[in-house]
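Weekly sync, protein design subgroup
Attendees: M.S., D.O., the rotation student, P.L. (late)

Item 1: inverse folding check
M.S. brought a backbone from last month's batch and wanted to see whether the design step gives back something sensible before we order anything. D.O. pointed out we never logged the input encoding, so this time it goes straight into the notes. Structure tokens as presented (308 positions):
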């Protein structure tokens, strides 16, 4: 890998370029809006074009680059698939039965534009398309790539499912309704599953596809856990200290929705301290690998200490 010495301006330019590359990869796997289900396909594309940061695709690709310099036929399908899974979860998360949000990334949420029924189906469609897309990457004559792809699929399925993201979302809903009493253990369970699980999927899948050994995959899982928890803690902090102009969504919604957050449980300053410690440990792990990826380090820092 070409070594990068990135200052802030260089990183911003590189981030923009790599995000645009991810956008192009994702767009190549999205459906054409036609047929009797055209409204659904339009809603799916609307959801995917909402201007996200493409964090998970970038983490997947940059982690892959820690272990391989070669282009892999299975890489791009997984890059697209993980963003489809993330986006489907946001579409459902915004529904009236969940968070009932009118805005996402500064524009109207899918259900406010297309209605609840189409939004539910759009989320379902994106989830199914994600696995169709990832499986398409296994259409290879190279048995090693196929074996890595199958192993990566297992991680992706688990982290997106009831033992991962969906399980975390369930606990979050039950905490809001008071069915589960607030506690530190519950807070970490929600953040570890609802947020960190898909970040773990991105980095573990990237490592698996790049040929990382089991010890390295375990280290990636730990680093990604820290990144995910810190990312969500920062999200909690920004819900208090941010603004609509920066975040593109209402401020203070966590408190209004009676959400269990790091700030509500620990207070603002302790939440900030934990973000710093989690970040330090995650970056230490990433720097421990023989091949270095300075862009990945900068990316992690930018995610954890973001202001929007």
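Designed sequence read out in the meeting:
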């Amino acid at each position: 890998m070409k070594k990068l010495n990135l200052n802030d301006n260089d990183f911003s330019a590189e981030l923009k370029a790599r995000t645009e590359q991810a956008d192009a990869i994702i767009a190549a796997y999205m459906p054409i809006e036609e047929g009797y289900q055209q409204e659904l396909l339009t809603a799916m594309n609307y959801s995917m074009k909402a201007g996200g940061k493409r964090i998970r695709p970038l983490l997947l690709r940059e982690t892959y680059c820690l272990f391989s310099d070669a282009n892999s036929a299975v890489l791009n399908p997984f890059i697209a698939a993980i963003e489809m899974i993330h986006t489907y979860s946001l579409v459902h998360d915004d529904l009236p039965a969940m968070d009932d949000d009118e805005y996402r990334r500064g524009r109207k949420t899918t259900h406010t534009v297309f209605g609840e029924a189409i939004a539910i189906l759009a989320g379902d469609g994106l989830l199914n398309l994600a696995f169709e897309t990832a499986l398409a990457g296994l259409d290879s004559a190279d048995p090693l790539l196929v074996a890595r792809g199958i192993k990566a699929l297992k991680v992706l399925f688990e982290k997106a499912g009831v033992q991962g993201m969906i399980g975390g979302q369930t606990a979050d809903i039950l905490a809001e309704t008071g069915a589960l009493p607030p506690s530190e253990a519950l807070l970490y369970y929600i953040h570890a599953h609802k947020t960190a699980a898909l970040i773990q999927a991105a980095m573990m899948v990237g490592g698996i596809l790049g040929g990382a050994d089991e010890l390295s995959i375990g280290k990636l899982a730990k680093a990604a856990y820290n990144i995910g928890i810190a990312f969500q803690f920062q999200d909690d902090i920004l819900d208090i200290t941010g603004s609509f102009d920066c975040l593109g969504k209402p401020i203070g919604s966590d408190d209004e929705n009676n959400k269990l957050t790091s700030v509500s449980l620990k207070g603002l300053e302790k939440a900030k301290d934990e973000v710093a410690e989690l970040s330090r440990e995650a970056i230490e792990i990433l720097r421990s690998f023989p091949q270095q990826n300075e862009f990945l380090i900068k990316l992690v820092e930018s995610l954890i200490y973001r202001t929007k």
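Discussion: The two ends are 30 Å apart (CA to CA). The domain at 8-304 is CATH 1.10.600.10 (Farnesyl Diphosphate Synthase).
Action: P.L. to compare against the previous round before Friday.
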